[in-house]
Known about the structure:
Oligomer: single chain
Helix content: 25-40%
Distance between the termini: 33 Å
Amino acid sequence: MRHDMGAKPTKSRGRYTSTLSAVSREAANLLLLKPLVWRLTDVTVHGVANLDSLDGAYIVVANHSSHLDTPLIFGSMPRRLSKYLATGAAADHFFTNWLHAITPVMFFNAFPVDRGKGKARVATRGTTAHGMAGSLLTDGVPLLIFPEGTRSRTGAMGTFKPGTAALSISREVPIIPVAIV
């Protein structure tokens, strides 16, 4: 099964595949976040050539220890692959009201992920986070997911939740593993 960005997304998913949003996000990341994050960190990227033949939807999975992880990943990926990349963000933290949601949505094409903490109802349009990742993959939108479900407090990698593997198998999309050291 192939999912391609040329397929018309469902109406509610339009912002994830909007060319205007993608161009704005690319400009903000390229001109603002990447220079800032690269100045604050020592970045070395390995394996980008392995992504040359990647096409269609996919899932990027990474360990998670800092709020800098997402801009590091966006800045490290080839622009053709990060253009429509949608990032799973905690519904109970980032999507409780529109003010919390605006930054991750603008910079990282964020979508709400229910971490099972009882606040899955998203403040934007009263929708729920349940099933959003699968719907986006079906619409051909690539995803960035932190399968630990939260940032590490110690720097040690936490236990991965099984959802990412299930999404990959059910939607027949590849997983791109990313290690942030």
